[in-house]
Fold:
Amino acid sequence: MTTDAPATRVTRAWAQILEWLAAYTPPSYAALRADASDDEIAALEATLGTDVPEELKAVWRLSAGEDGVNRSGLMLGDWALMPLDAVAEVHRRQMGIQEEVGEGEDLAAFWEPSWIPFCSRNPDDTASGLYLDGRTGEVHRWTRYGERDREYASLPAYLELMAVSLEAPLTAAGPEKPGMLHGALVWGPPDGERGGAWVRHLGQAPPRHPAKTLGAIREALPGAERDAFDERRDALDLTDPEVVAAFLDHWWGSTVAAQERLEDDIASALRGNIMAQPGRDLAPEYEAALPPALRHRPPSFDDIRTALRHESVRARFNQDLLNAIPPHFPAVLLRWWDIARLMADPRGDRAVRAVVAGRHDARKRRPPRSS
Structure:
């Protein structure tokens, strides 16, 4: 492997992420800052007093930070990509604390010159975040309390995991799931009132809600409600635009509520409340009305094993099945089916193999929010 391989992997993964942001969450894409020039990066290195690893330069050459949307960052783990001036300020501040703390054989380093911060809790809060260890290439989390936890094996692994989680969201490892809040990417589900407005992203699905037309609404209604819809539609004065609009608004709202209830029921069933293997013994009420957000009938073991393109990946799938407890088979199968689908796309194939091969070390918990 050449020395520029990590930077090449970062460039590919970050470019894939930017493409996804532009297509699905324009507000988040618009919040990204312009790319940094080589002169700007060289000036930052002079300020830091240390070299910046090439893989981090590769990120900044495509986008040198973000301004955030709704006080949230767009990076996996609900972090914000720090602008270069914030990078310099955090590094200076942390090194200042290190000088005050001092060094000793029994003292763990509070901060080292080669630790380059690149993510923070949000654009306005730099009391915690992620830094790249320029000596080891690992990504660690820092907090104001001196916590230093290894989160990912490398920056390429972190960004490849983020790219896979966006392209095939049911594969997302850990508690953070991609979703939208007022059109912007927010990893969640978020707490409090923001959680009520957050919509989880479920992949390359058709729009969940029907078009606001009489035919589309009727088709989307549960069967038990169609007779009432037909009766009121037949009595409708189709020459009055306001009456028609009010009728459409009312019944469209009914279809949306019914679809959301159905999706919640099916998601619950597929993630552990049924013992049967999906694809063979799904309850009839679910099999007859799988919502568009799931995009497919749940697959069988053999479906997935056949679709996986590499023997090493199939071996990992087999091991996951051996380790799975029966109630969790549905979640395991959906995750691996999305991996198989993503591997059919050459852009996603390398990223999937990197993630499945264990090049990331994502923790199964959300970093604590700073107070």
